[in-house]
Amino acid sequence: MSGVRKIRLAVLISGRGSNLQAILDQAASGELPAQIAAVISNRPGVAGLERARKAGVPALELDHKNFADRSDFEAALIELIDHQRPDLVILAGFMRVLTAGFTEHYRGRLLNIHPSLLPKFRGLHTHERAIAAGEIEHGASIHFVTAELDGGPVVAQARVPVLPGDDPDTLAARVLEREHRLYPLAIRWFAEGRIELDGERVRFDGKPMVEPLRLEDVAPPD
Ligand code: GRF
Known about the structure:
The chain is α/β, with parallel strands linked by helices and about 220 residues long. It is built from seven helices and eleven strands. The strands form two sheets. An eight-stranded mixed β-sheet has the order 3-2-1-4-5-6-7-11. α1 (about 20-30) packs parallel to α6 (about 170-190). The longest helix is centred in the last third of the chain and has 24 residues, at about 170-190. 5-O-phosphono-beta-D-ribofuranosylamine (GRF) binds next to α1, β5 and α6. 5-O-phosphono-beta-D-ribofuranosylamine binds near residues 93, 113, 114 and 179.
């Protein structure tokens, strides 16, 4: 990974932090040219904070319940994040809706992972809804975050089959395994300057992206 500058990441979580773990592991091994400046959770005491501490990364709590309203919380969150001077802000299971004030502040340097093949199944309970809809394929998407919930331009996707007999848990586990490959890869592309937001579109290697990149094309399942 020589020659690529390490970028500073701020990772926002609300819970388990398995995507965070994948990012921490790849940063530690040198596969991902990134330094995790801080992990910030809006929920105190969650497992992801412990993962950060174990990796020697500052684990910060900012409990949204301590704020009178969303805009007070977001103002404090912006201050906390900006104090870390991140090049890129990563939402990894961060379960708060963000207002346009926040998403505009970080426009072009804010990524989210969503467990569906966007634009299908924005919002919650995506695995359950994919099964109920009779989908034969499901997956996860990385997108730049804009004010529209789960609606920003998609960078990359990972696809998995929906198998007979799947329930939301078995399907979620299959998707999650691919998420752990997908997110570090997208972050690496950002670090290498390969992906950027240009208005409402993504550019990859300087060219407007017509279709999201597919993980299967670059990293087939093990
Ligand atoms: C993942 O399924 C991710 O797609 C969604 O929230 C979940 C977070 O899981 N946004 P974890 O906290 O990374 O384990």
